[in-house]
Amino acid sequence: MELKNPLYKNIGIHVIITLFTVEKGITKVLLVRRTNEPFKGSWSLPSGAMYNNELIKDGALRELKEKTGIELEDLTPFRTFDSLDRSPVQRMIGIGYMGIIDSKRVEILKNTNKTSNADWFKLDEIPELAYDHNDILNHAILKLKERIIDTDILKTFFPNGFTLPELQNVYESILDIEIDRRNFRKKMLPLIIDTHKEINYLGKKKAKLYKFDKRKKDTSIF
Amino acid sequence: MELKNPLYKNIGIHVIITLFTVEKGITKVLLVRRTNEPFKGSWSLPSGAMYNNELIKDGALRELKEKTGIELEDLTPFRTFDSLDRSPVQRMIGIGYMGIIDSKRVEILKNTNKTSNADWFKLDEIPELAYDHNDILNHAILKLKERIIDTDILKTFFPNGFTLPELQNVYESILDIEIDRRNFRKKMLPLIIDTHKEINYLGKKKAKLYKFDKRKKDTSIF
DNA sequence: TCCATTTGTGTATTTTGTACACATATATTT
DNA sequence: AAATATATGTGTACAAAATACACAAATGGA
């Protein structure tokens, strides 16, 4: 039986999660500090080995919860990393998942848990990470910029709706560009639904609350 | 050591290749007939288990050559398939690769080889395939239509350059649409380079031979 | 009550995409 | 050899989309 051939053995599957947030116009990513060898003491992306009886995405959601305390409904796969030397222990194929959430809505394990502690890092202040995680993070950042044009990925950021200034702020932070407010609204309005509620975002005047229209997607970048 | 935990064991990696071609305006995909259990006698996409000492893409290129005789330089990953019941034997994660070539430029193992024989199938005449390969093929077709707007994937189809009518024919076949010749040229000319050669494509008048401009990419669909 | 900040709206210009018709070259037929 | 059918190659007018741009209204804080 071919599967007994040693050439097919001992391939492990790693899931690696890049979870982004935007805080006051600054894009950040969630890192955890490793408390075990290898790379003990290094920061890394939340990651771990997948079980052989779970879906890869479920493994990613489980690892994220175990390593950071964050419980999500969904993550998006963005790339597989398969260089032969990824892990010093055995052949490990890494499957990268990404997501974006509002850090204000979750509580992370921070300087409290023995097996890991987690924190948000600005993208221009990323330390040297364990394994090939700097490389993986760079790929994730590029993919995030590509995917942000698809509003699907932003639904996890705004589970309770959003105001247009809020939404624009996330776009501008992720893409690192400025967008004219009037043109932004013109482009977004056909994709979203007015909930006829209003909330205060940055004090001052109240802003209308919108939600995404499930049936519609944006298709072009600003 | 966590990797000895049985939860991490016995995960195999399969590579599955969907190789497309266009013949006289008809898009086709390469299938092989299985000569071993499971699914002995069924048609399937070329596929096989990855070795633990090779890159996934190299595994895909190797399997394609072993199963069909076709030797390529490159394939593009398009999706990972990980349902728990993909294989009756053990947990098998399938990694799908796609490519598109001119079938006239390759010779396939056809009714000659004991371990497999291969043939090109029209997309509306696909038989029931082994494993989840019908599902994988459907995903590949959708991805091909998305990716064809990136001329990179077409470089494998036209390694020696192309005429504009030829190129348009491939676009029209893959996307299953008709494109106005004048508008097609207007859009393509900035992305390609005139080689100042001319060849006969469909007899009659000679057509100019172009090649892709490496630095440029198309970004919108017709 | 004044000021600074934030939300909200419309129009003119530029760019891009789409629709559309005829001339030239050449292999094939008569 | 001439006529015909088929394929390649080109420009322009119109429509749609993206971009640039300025002011009014609401409200918290000084």
Considering the chains and any ligands shown, give keywords for the structure.
9 strands, 222 residues, 2 domains, DNA-binding, 4 helices, elongated, Nucleoside Triphosphate Pyrophosphohydrolase, alpha+beta, Arc Repressor Mutant, subunit A, two-stranded antiparallel sheet, seven-stranded mixed beta sheet, homodimer
Q: How much helical structure, as a percent, in the residues of chain A?
A: 10-25%
Described by its quaternary structure, the protein is: homodimer
Structural class by secondary-structure content of chain A: alpha+beta
For the record, give the distance between the C-alpha atoms at the N and C termini of chain A, rounded to a whole number. 54 Å
Q: The CATH topology of the largest domain in chain A, please?
A: Nucleoside Triphosphate Pyrophosphohydrolase
CATH class term of the largest domain in chain A: Alpha Beta
Mean pLDDT of chain A: 91
Short description:
Two copies of one chain form a homodimer. With 222 residues, chain A is α+β, with helices and mostly antiparallel strands.
Notes on the protein architecture:
Chain A is an alpha+beta fold and 222 residues long. Chain A folds into 2 domains: 2-147, Alpha-Beta Complex (Nucleoside Triphosphate Pyrophosphohydrolase); 151-212, Arc Repressor Mutant, subunit A (Orthogonal Bundle), CATH 1.10.10. Chain A is 22% helix and 29% strand. The first copy, chain A, is built from 4 helices and 9 strands. Chain A has helices at 56-68, 133-147, 164-175, 181-188, and strands spanning 11-23, 26-34, 43-44, 47-49, 76-81, 91-100, 116-122, 192-199, 207-212. In chain A, strands 1, 2, 3, 4, 5, 6 and 7 form a 7-stranded mixed β-sheet that branches. Chain A is elongated, with a radius of gyration of 19 Å. The first copy, chain A, starts with 10 loop residues before the first strand and ends in a 10-residue tail after the last strand. The mean pLDDT of chain A is 91. The interface between A and B is medium-sized, with 29 and 29 residues. The first copy, chain A, binds a DNA duplex (30 and 30 nucleotides) through helix 4.
